[in-house]
Amino acid sequence: MPTAKRDSVASGGRLDAVVVGAGFAGMYLLHRLRRAGLSARVLEQGSGVGGTWFWNRYPGARCDVESMEYSFKFDEALQQEWVWSERYSEQPEILRYLNHVADRFDLRRDISFETRVAKAHFDDAKSRWTVTTERGDAYSAQYVVMATGCLSSTNTPKFPGLDSFAGRVFHTGKWPHEPVDFTGRRVGIIGTGSSAIQTIPIVAEQARHLTVFQRTPNFSVPAQNGPLDPKVQARIKARYGELRRLGSQMPFGFDVQFNEKSALDATPAERRAEFEQRWAHGGLPFLGCYSDLLYDKAANELAADFIREKIREIVKDPKVAALLTPDSVVGCKRLCSDTGYFETFNRSNVTLVDVRSAPIAEILPRGLRTERQSYEFDDLILATGFDAMTGTLLRIDIRGVGGATLGERWAEGPKTYLGLTTAGFPNLFMMTGPGSPSVLSNMVVSIEQHVEWIAECVANLRARGLERIEATPEAQAAWVEHVNEVADSTLYPRCNSWYLGSNVPGKPRVFMPYLGFPAYVEKCKQVVADGYQGFRLA
Ligand code: NAP
Question: What are the tens digits of pLDDT across the range 285-307?
Answer without folding.
Answer: 999 999 999 999 999 999 999 99
